[in-house]
Automatic annotation (TrEMBL):
Gene3D superfamilies: Winged helix-like DNA-binding domain superfamily/Winged helix DNA-binding domain (1.10.10.10). Pfam families: HTH_20 (PF12840). It comes from the Bacteria. InterPro entries: ArsR-like_HTH, HTH_ArsR_DNA-bd_dom, WH-like_DNA-bd_sf, WH_DNA-bd_sf. This is ArsR/SmtB family transcription factor. The keyword Magnesium does not apply. PROSITE patterns: HTH_ARSR_2. Signal peptide: none annotated. Keywords: DNA-binding. Residues 1-93 form the HTH arsR-type domain.
Amino acid sequence: MAAPSPKHDVFQAIADPTRRSLLRLLEEQELPVTVISSHYPISRTAVSKHLRILTEAGLVKERKVGRETRYRMEPEPLLELKRWLDHYERFWENKLAALKRFVEE
């Protein structure tokens, strides 16, 4: 039986700047929502919604510690994004090579 597909994909999840910031915050450490919320000028409820979207996309994992839920980044799903960007990198390389030729002429 195949695993159910996530409610949100990686591209949707990282489209929001707050969620990208949350990923940066969680890349080095596991934190509870109370600590995470202290880094943002939005409500704890709003932070929880962002964390839920990141969790549904597989970019954040949650773990219960007593009565507290702690969150940490899960980088594996970002490989999908990297593969997609790698495909288009050749266009950037071509543009940079053309710019270099133009500047050197």
